[in-house]
Amino acid sequence: xxxxxxxxxxxxxxxxxxxxxxxxxxxxxxxxxxxxxxxxxxxxxxxxxxxxxxxxxxxxxxxxxxxxxxxxxxxxxxxxxxxxxxxxxxxxxxxxxxxxxxxxxxxxxxxxxxxxxxxxxxxxxxxxxxxxxxxxxxxxxxxxxxxxxxxxxxxxxxxxxxxxxxxxxxxxxxxxxxxxxxxxxxxxxxxxxxxxxxxxxxxxxxxxxxxxxxxxxxxxxxxxxxxxxxxxxxxxxxxxxxxxxxxxxxxxxxx
Length: 255
Prior knowledge:
The chain is α/β, with parallel strands linked by helices.
């Protein structure tokens, strides 16, 4: 979601999985990619990210080489991904799997139910009172607290209480607490795509850096593949790791 974090687990406490095999060593590879912190560097605000030179071409070439078995799975809204990437040649999933558009398709899969308006009003009031950035999405909203890193516990406690009142689920990420309808996660969209003819029977690899990517790692493993953690974190379900965004680009360049 484009917000940096300075409060992650210390690398001294985090297990670092080994590097992944090169793409050519993985039989009938499928690739699922987080966006922020994986394909693009974090920035001070979601709209402040910068796409690396040649990133879109790199992704389109990789997708073509994999016969379409590449998808970007992000917490960002689908329209936001579209605005930054500007291509119909990639399969995009926004809102943690709640929105989907297949490559070269003109229509988007409809998202689930919108969040309650009153919940958003209360969230807006809380964000304004605490000097937080509130990011509104099609399926929910996210409290970003990078500018106030000590507010994490307060923000998460409020988000949990608000979620309980309105039947929403709170998810914690890097300097962010997000509320959205329950039952939507990145693992679900991996499972859904793996059931389609294009992805069926392939080896899924999910690459991501955040806590919300753990669902994707587990889903990839359940379908005979594995997860690749970008950076370091204790307790990850990923069995391989890449050091940073540049390392992800280099790995994708071998496809």
